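May I ask for whichever protein you like with its backbone structure tokens?
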Amino acid sequence: MAKAAPQSLRKGIEVSISMAEAAMQANVDVVAAYPITPQTHIVEHLSELVADGRLDAEFVPVESEHSAMSACCGSSASGARTYTATSSQGLALMHEILYIASALRLPIVMAVANRALSGPISIWNDHGDIMAERDTGWIQVFVENGQEAYDMTFHAFRVAEDHGVLLPYMINFDGFILSHVIEPIVYWSQELVDQYIGLYEPMLRLDTKNPITMGPVGIPDIYLETRKAHDFVLRESKATIVKAWDEMEKLVGRRYRPIETYKTDGARILLLTMGGVSETAMTAVDALREAGLPVGLVRIRLWRPFPFEELYEAVKDCEVLGVVDRCLSTGGPGGPVASEIKGALYHKDKRPKVVEFIAGIGGRDVRVEDFQDMAKKTLSVADGAPLPPFELVGVRE
């Protein structure tokens, strides 16, 4: 482990508040936002920081999330460091503008408190909202706890504003399960933040003294090539993402990777998770290992660009992979993560079988015992049981 530089202090603080204060430490210029449960505490606190004079920024209260993202596009295009946050129906309302933000290469940073989509109305956590936005061209990461949510705010600005990237960045964190929980978080000193992020120097900006055009009509003769260029730069951003995590490790001693593993050595089967439930899954793996079962865990941190090579390296030696989705692909093959995992592994000669589980929909609890049960069912396939269809964990018949 790299020797970390001194950090300022350790606080017991609500995760949402720590993310707002990370945005303040990043010295954002504009926050345009609309309140929606469970992300409201982030932008509410940012409005207080601006009103109290602790943050020298423009806080723009808008009439909807569609307007919030539109305002973010305008401020970012003019050269301002821009931040927002949303959730669920608000993210869905932004959908149209998310494509524009990424196509115009605007380095907006957005926190998404993941929450189920209506209907029926649900304010509780799952990954339905973000899975609907997979193809919008944003960098997307998932965090598992408050420290990661705080750290990833700085990583987002560091990566998004890099001139070799210039793409918007979403930080996904579980609504309520993380957003409203008080956790011990080690704050960076302001000196460390300034050293890591630096000043934002736009490559291009809207300027009345030097007029340029952003987002002109893409006729058929050029549209395909622009989409290819967008896909290329998003895929290539992975190198900068990893480099920025390496730099963070040197500064604060915490290591982040596109794919992260837990007790995978000697494991015949692995579970795969994303987000806050991963720590519950780790507890289950600990208990199963103590009972002598060859079980390990793989977690996806980087969702876009998808980490194909790192995924394969993590799972190539296991017999069966149990994928735990937090979203049901209605009318489809099961869960979107499992579909992507199977697609990513399809052309590999050596690949594990995939067992699909869908858990925690609409905030339904996923307990240690549930993960133990999923692991045992996955292990039964390794022992010769037939591959089952996807399972909705805990559903009442």
Observations:
- The mean pLDDT is 96.
- The first helix runs from residue 15 to 25.
- The radius of gyration is 21 Å.
